[in-house]
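User: Fold this one for me? It's Iron-binding zinc finger CDGSH type domain-containing protein.
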Amino acid sequence: MGANKKIMIKIIKDGPYRVTGGVPLLEQAIVTDDNGNTRELIDIKEYPRQNTYILCRCGSSNNKPYCDGAHRKIGFDGSETASRRPYMERAETFESPDLKITDVYELCDHSRFCQRSGGIRNLIQKSDDPEARQTAIEEAMICPSGRLVLWDKKTGKPFEKEFEPSIVLVHDKQKGCEGPLWVRGYIPIESADGSMYESRNRVTLCRCGKSENKPYCDGSHWMTREQKLEFRKKWGLE
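Assistant: Here's what I get for Iron-binding zinc finger CDGSH type domain-containing protein.
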């Protein structure tokens, strides 16, 4: 019977994520280039396939990535504060002659893939250079949180990698910590209140329990409050 359950991530009130439908669970690590810029994710392991499993959301489980009930012991507050408005309703747009970026700042998980080679906004302004154009495409498609989407203005289509529905446990080697849950392939996410979040090809969910934009990651696994405030001021979010 369990094998017939549809693919879904259900957020449990003040508790974990319940994953159904036999979603693959993998672990990948962020690696950097010679200049220290994050470049790609490499495979570390794949967990045994299960029809249903429960992932820690509070960050205190002694059986990570799985829940062991620690959320009850620590009185975890898992209140969901993220906007439910669709991505495109919130996105700001930045354009060059043949490319455009849509950007929803508050979704940023601070994995820093958009900073290589001077940053993606700088790169799209040089999109007549094949190398700059290709780097911009690579940076956009690997942005785990889906904050950034790059579009071809000629076709009107986004540059997106086709992901099998899957969840990746991100390890941030550069910051020396565990990163978010990278949810790929349009997996439906159901709130604790029963409503649905917008299904997207790429989103990152908090698994440290510290995000101020739950259920999404906001970089709190490595950023201090001061660093987050600096980021918010930079992007006019205050």
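One thing worth pointing out: The radius of gyration is 18 Å.
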